[in-house]
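User: Structure tokens for this complex, please. No commentary.
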Amino acid sequence: MKGTANAPEVIEVENGSIVTPKGFKAIGIYTGVKRKRLDLGAIFCEVPASSAAVYTTNRIQAAPLKVTKESIMKEGKLQALVVNSGNANACTGEKGLEDAYEMRSVSAEHFNVPNHYVAVTSTGVIGQYLPMDKIVPGIQQLQPEATIEAAEAFNEAILTTDTIKKMVCYQTTIDGKAISVGGVAKGSGMINPNMATMLSFVTTDAVIEPSVLQQALSEITNQTFNSITVDGDTSTNDMVVVMASGLAEHETLTPAHPEWNGFYQALKLTCESLAKKIARDGEGATKLIEVQVQGAVNDEEAGKVAKKIVGSDLVKSAVYGADANWGRIICAVGYSGCEIDPDTIDIAIGPIQTLVNSQPVVFSEEEATAYLKDEETIKINVDLKIGNGTGKAWGCDLTYDYVRINAGYRT
Amino acid sequence: MKGTANAPEVIEVENGSIVTPKGFKAIGIYTGVKRKRLDLGAIFCEVPASSAAVYTTNRIQAAPLKVTKESIMKEGKLQALVVNSGNANACTGEKGLEDAYEMRSVSAEHFNVPNHYVAVTSTGVIGQYLPMDKIVPGIQQLQPEATIEAAEAFNEAILTTDTIKKMVCYQTTIDGKAISVGGVAKGSGMINPNMATMLSFVTTDAVIEPSVLQQALSEITNQTFNSITVDGDTSTNDMVVVMASGLAEHETLTPAHPEWNGFYQALKLTCESLAKKIARDGEGATKLIEVQVQGAVNDEEAGKVAKKIVGSDLVKSAVYGADANWGRIICAVGYSGCEIDPDTIDIAIGPIQTLVNSQPVVFSEEEATAYLKDEETIKINVDLKIGNGTGKAWGCDLTYDYVRINAGYRT
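Assistant:
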């Protein structure tokens, strides 16, 4: 979906959020679904916003996903998005579906918009019915605002085992007008390609049709949210929703627009930044791992190899142990199922070359250990040297705390 | 490869081992490749034995695998098998291949058999050259014996992070003559379907042609060694080798032999028992997990679903935490990529039914926790109710110790 011209400058906005784009408000409140933390949030747009979404590939999909799909399919527009945490409303059968519909209709009434302008979603424990006695009065109290505090409250309301809030905003210029893309996300365990326990909501004031937005989002999701893995599990509830208010009032964006790339980059940087924050905040993680693969037969295979490496429990444990264990990396390359030449593989861990043409080179173990200990982001670079495909994937180290968290938490 | 008649009785032999079948001797010694434990072993057959093998599916294959393949391909016979632990001779390029050939020729000379009657293999650290100054004199000291102590020494010599020895023997009767199948294995981390860091060597005195043996082994491997997973990693060095001395002197076995099923079952039980021992001894594991899936569209899909469940870090952590978390089980079913009906899934954890038709049923959490705490083997039963396919897979729980072991050990 490349555009026709070079990208205009895209800059990150300090203290930007999902309410930076014109027309958006947000809020997060406490209703008691969770024990202590905020657990119900909403994003509201003052006009019907062009909308697009991608959903979990898990064959078991939670009830709210079905309801949200139905909303977006109708007209490609959303005006309100309501999310609860603490309960996923998944594996809850007919009753669960009724609850999701009720969550939508109560929200539609509260925000005074048609049902199909409302998206609903839930995250948390599977297999328990939504406590509608808390959700319904909760929705009726939602008063979104266009402040950073309100945006942060929304972010807090969608978290589960997350330890940090995940928010970002980029700006660029289209037809001489500033446009913003703001995003927020949750997700730390059950994270794998193809939408794992993660939710992400992106707002923008760009002017764009739903179908064009959908294609851009699908492409970008593959290179960002679908390129992270925490534990290889793919959850039942995940989705990414983008809402575009159109209030920036430039010419409608399509890939033919001379400044299309600026918008595309802003959306991609937003998604990539959120994806990396999710990977870094993987359950129990102490480090972000970024794997870059080049020289694959094509980009898709490069991405696949990168994800196999970053998904290997052995590689993840080695990073936690500050062990420059390239053997486990080449091993993951070998079982990736991708085309490789067993004799041409180069591997570097940060600045340290460890393997050239599949054979070990002498390197300073001390230097390697120092790199693995000191850096917040561990970079692994693999060159397969059989083609021009490149790809990236992100993950995190595997730690005692991952086990502790997941031996206890009932998802 | 079903036979034409019912299976004769197959019984486990107490204190049976790889030297129980007629014609076999074994030994394990210390050469200093490892710091302390035995690290070099051999199995020797007094006659050329019909042989078959399966190898890792990892595209990166260690040098000794290439040499062993070459040996077996020539005539389908082996007389000696020499293994070292402590060094995998993987990712060692031309020099590594030369070393593996030398390991073979020194062994051939020592045992006074042709080169192609010798299999060699190595397990341990990747990317370091074999210390031939220890391996060569080590081989020259190998004096195999037909005692259980010698078989145990062999077993010890092939271990890496294993905590228990893995040995088993079954007997049955063919044409009125007792035949035995004995097996030994190593492997605890990097274990995944399709041959992970595991080695297994099986001996038998049955009379069978190499090609028939190969077909039986390939089939059985899929249902046993390829149905276990510890951490999803598939190593560069794994193989299973079967040697059949033919000294039981019954009629040559083929699937048309009336007692074929007895042999097939003895071989399958040997492999299944070793596979389960490997899974149970997964790095840091405290429990064996056995997942049985029924009602899939076919056996292959049932096996795939079973392996996805048993391979889920979240399921493994939940078992470790004694948490009857069926949500994670159904989630793994959903992302298995197999055909399912999202509304017809039943899940039981041991004797406790937790889900019927994809909806939770009330069960005693207390009883469930007690089952998960008290049992050595945790059974998970999933019925997809869309077909007649059945399959099993084995794995282990994910514990703090897995992380501890793998944050430190340089494989």
